[in-house]
């Protein structure tokens, strides 16, 4: 471990590094979403939506209700598709991007759904000269599929309420994950009323084909990528726990091996969704990043014990069967554009950075690791970090201790007199020469990213993966 006073800039360069072309995947994913969204708008226009909107009466509210319903249904199904691990979205947006999109699309689809219910009910009530409450009751009890749709809406409200950040923080991950699964049931219960009472869904052969195709692709995507592929690949490779060891004061590392593990195609910096088949609770998957270079023939994870899912890791026994989904994530060495590396990790976010440092090419002094923990005893992967320092010339700095007084900066109280950007420059020198990898809590990474940008680092050279659900 180095100190600030011992830092000496390195001048050697490693071999040229390859760059990926994620733009094509992103273009394909964005084109797919826009094309289908515009098709939904075209269906509404073809159904005399514009003419009805200009009527300025009950039909205007009804046609707005039809439009919000169409867009909500489209977004709702895309929300499910985004989390179905479909390659075009995974490679186009990355896991961070998908998580953000899933949240944004989810809330928009929900509020459009509420607008759909209000506008349709008000429009019908005005047209039929009926009280709004009476009209709503009539919808629920007399229209085909509406009772199921009402139950589905209730489940979606439950999912949305528990996804609000303040509520989410009060729930254990396991409880939140179980409640979130009810969203699938909510979507399923809403579909019948679309087929039975939604004129826009069955008004033309094109509309019928589109909606059936979208629902079919959504269902197939979930069944194939979330169920079939993990089962088939895990069985093919015969993944089992090899060893479980302590890692730091409150951490645990798990080594997993199997047949031809390299054929999983995992790269350092990526993560899997892990299920350990050791008894009750095995169905709940947990995201853990690889903590070692998978080129070694094993999959290694390291986590801090902070809840039921991570506590179970310490109780695993060698020979326990393992099922994985993945690999996922875009925080790999393929994102590099130069030879120098600055790795900044907090807590369990250090694990994927160590895996990257094991797998990537760099000369002695060209890689810097900055770790943030409550204390040195809490640090993960310390033995591996020390080995990299001795064998490959990794420079390691630690910033331990409690948060600074501001509460918004990544700089701990022990270095509160430092400006964040200046501290990074003191550690690494000319930051514009580095590819920077971040992994830790999202607000913490946002604070570092802002300081990196102030110090002149280009966005394209800042790579991160959110170590949070």
Describe this structure in words.
It is a single chain. The protein has 469 residues and is of the alpha/beta class. It has 16 helices and eleven strands. It has helices at 22-46, 49-53, 58-82, 87-127, 132-142, 146-163, 165-170, 173-180, 182-197, 199-202, 205-237, 308-314, 350-359, 382-392, 420-428, 442-454; strands at residues 240-247, 251-257, 271-276, 286-289, 299-304, 322-328, 340-346, 367-372, 395-398, 434-440, 462-466. The strands form three sheets. A five-stranded parallel sheet has the order 9-8-7-10-11, with helices on both faces. It has a three-stranded antiparallel sheet with strand order 1-2-5, covered by helices on one side. It has a three-stranded antiparallel sheet with strand order 4-3-6. Strand 7 (340-346), helix 13 and strand 8 (367-372) form a beta-alpha-beta unit. Helix 4 (87-127) packs across helix 5 (132-142). The radius of gyration is 26 Å and the shape is elongated. The model is unreliable at 2-20 (pLDDT under 50).
Characteristics:
single chain, 469 residues, alpha/beta, five-stranded parallel β-sheet, three-stranded antiparallel β-sheet, 16 helices, disordered N terminus
| Fraction in helix | 40-55%
- Major sheet description: 5 strands, parallel
Arrangement of strands in the largest sheet? 9-8-7-10-11
Net shape? elongated
Task: Give the beta-strand count.
Answer: 11
Classify the oligomer.
single chain
SSE ordering: HHHHHHHHHHHEEEEEHEEHEHEHEHE
Structural class per helix/strand content?
Answer: alpha/beta
What count of helical segments does DSSP give?
Answer: 16
Overall pLDDT, averaged? 82
- Beta percentage is 5-15%
Distance between the termini: 31 Å
| Computed CA radius of gyration, to the nearest angstrom | 26 Å
Model regions low in confidence, pLDDT < 50 over at least 5 residues: 2-20
């Amino acid at each position: 471990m180095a100190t600030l006073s011992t830092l000496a800039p390195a001048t050697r360069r490693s071999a040229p590094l390859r760059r990926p072309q994620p733009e094509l995947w992103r273009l394909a994913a964005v084109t797919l979403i826009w094309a289908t969204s515009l098709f939904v708008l075209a269906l509404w226009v073809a159904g005399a939506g514009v003419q009805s909107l200009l009527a300025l009466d009950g039909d205007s509210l009804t046609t707005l209700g039809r439009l919000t319903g169409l867009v909500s249904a489209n977004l709702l199904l895309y929300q499910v598709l985004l989390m179905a691990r479909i390659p075009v979205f995974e490679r186009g947006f990355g896991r961070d991007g998908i998580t953000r999109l899933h949240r944004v699309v989810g809330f928009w689809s929900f509020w459009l759904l509420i607008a759909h219910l209000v506008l349709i009910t008000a429009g019908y009530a005005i047209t039929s000269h009926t009280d709004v409450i009476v009209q709503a009751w009539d919808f629920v009890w007399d229209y085909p599929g509406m009772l199921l749709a009402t139950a589905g809406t209730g489940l979606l409200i439950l999912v949305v309420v528990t996804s609000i950040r303040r509520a989410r923080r009060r729930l254990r991950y396991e409880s939140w994950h179980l409640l979130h699964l009810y969203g699938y049931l909510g979507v399923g219960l809403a579909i019948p009323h679309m087929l039975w009472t939604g004129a826009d869904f069955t008004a033309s052969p094109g509309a019928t084909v589109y909606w059936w195709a979208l629902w079919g692709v959504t269902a197939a995507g979930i069944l194939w990528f979330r169920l079939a592929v993990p089962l088939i690949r895990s069985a093919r490779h015969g993944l089992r726990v090899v060893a479980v060891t302590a890692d730091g004061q409150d951490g645990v590392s798990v080594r997993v091996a199997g047949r031809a593990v390299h054929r999983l195609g995992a790269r350092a910096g990526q993560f899997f969704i892990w299920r350990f088949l050791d008894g009750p609770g095995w169905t709940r998957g947990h995201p853990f990043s690889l903590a070692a270079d998978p080129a070694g023939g094993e999959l290694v994870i390291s986590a801090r014990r902070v809840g039921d899912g991570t506590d179970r890791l310490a109780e695993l026994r060698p020979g326990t069967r393992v099922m994985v989904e993945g690999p996922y994530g875009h925080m790999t060495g393929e994102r590099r554009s130069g030879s120098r590396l600055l790795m900044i990790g907090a807590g369990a976010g250090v694990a994927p950075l160590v895996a990257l440092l094991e797998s990537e090419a760099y000369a002695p002094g060209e890689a810097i690791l900055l770790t943030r923990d409550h204390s040195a005893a809490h640090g993960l992967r310390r033995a591996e970090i020390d080995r990299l320092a001795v064998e490959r010339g990794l420079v390691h700095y630690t910033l331990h201790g409690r948060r600074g007084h501001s509460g918004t900066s990544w700089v701990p109280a022990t270095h509160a007199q430092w400006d964040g950007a200046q501290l990074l420059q003191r550690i690494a020198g000319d930051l514009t020469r580095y590819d920077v990898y971040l992994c830790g809590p999202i607000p913490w990474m946002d604070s570092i990213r802002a300081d990196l940008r102030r110090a002149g680092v280009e966005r394209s050279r800042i790579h991160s993966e959110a170590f949070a659900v």
